[in-house]
Amino acid sequence: MAYTFAKVTLGYAEYLESLYSANPEMMQASYDEQQQFIFRDGFGEADYMQSHLESFGVEAFTIIANCTYLQEAWARERGLSLSLDEILTEQLRELNPTILFIHNCYVHDDSFIEQIKAAVPSIALVIGWCGIGFTEEWAARWTRFDAILTCNPAQLHDFERVGIRTGLINHGFEKNILDTVGEHASGESYDVLFTGSLIASNGYHQGRINLLTQLVRAGLPLTILSKPLPNRESFPEELLPHIKPPLYGMEMLAALGRAKIVFNSHLDANRAYAGNFRLFEATGMGACLLTDAQRNIDQIFVPNKEIVTYAGVDECLEKALYLLEHPAERKSIAQAGQKRTLSDYTYAHRARSLHAYILDNIG
Predict the structure, then answer these.
(1) Does residue 199 have a pLDDT over 80?
(2) Cα–Cα distance between 37 and 24 in angstroms, integer?
(3) Would you state the pLDDT for residue 197?
(4) Mean pLDDT confidence for 310-332
(5) CA–CA separation, 360 and 3 (whole Å)
(6) Domains of the chain: which residue ranges?
(7) 68 pLDDT higher than 90
(8) CATH number at 4-172+346-361
(9) What would the mean pLDDT of 280-289 be, rounded to a whole number?
(10) What is 183-344's CATH topology?
(11) What was the pLDDT predicted at 133?
């Protein structure tokens, strides 16, 4: 069955601000020029789902709803002066999709869906994505979704328990990145690298922060690339010198490729299940991944062959130091991990799973 797919997503505000600050000429570029510029930078999912769905004959589109310069360019080209919310409505009205995929259910919940479905009657199926953070309080605000997909088995069970139709789809890595990341390949090399957020709030990264702090205290040569800390004064003093400004998109992916070891620690709220972006980005870029031993990790990778796992700070430190001292073994694991990701966890696989789910549920 043929269908038209529209994905509504949001970009990190810090990323968009840094991208346009570094490239101010893009602020007045056309909608298509800006969109392709952002997609080429490879941040997040870029247009990967769109491009791979198109290989199945799907007419697919991606809207970055909070990118002000981009969205205003779309409106300007049509002689419209509208708010961002109004622009999004008009874009969907113009695209006339059959499938609406909402990437952030916390922002675009039932009230948005009701308004959009009234304006765009072509929509036959509304699918949401929620990687983490669901509590039963949200169930009352997500009744208009036909399904909400996730990468977290614990959350899958939560959705099923409250009667939300759901499905499990892993994150992925875009294989074509390896052909385009070369221009960003030069730069600092890292012994042990962590890239990601450090939010000291319950359910977020407190466990990660504690672990990183203990590793630094033990003398591990660790570099942390993370966005500015909102409550910097509350962080352990010895951790702060290891935190450097974040990298995004192709620059971040290239940094992963220049690391001997990429450290990974899941959110506290993951409840002992693995599945975050970093699993696939690090292995896809050919780094040796050192990740927490979540209960399902051996269903994704083969521990100690394709990745290395740890349970607690002592084992993490021991294995990190061992890998630094044994480069041949580290390289072998990195190569096996990359081979597994490129074989089983690309965006082509992710799009195929989503396409099959849509066909099974479009009615």
Answers:
(1) no
(2) 12
(3) 83
(4) 97
(5) 13
(6) 4-172+346-361, 183-344
(7) yes
(8) 3.40.50
(9) 98
(10) Rossmann fold (3.40.50)
(11) 81
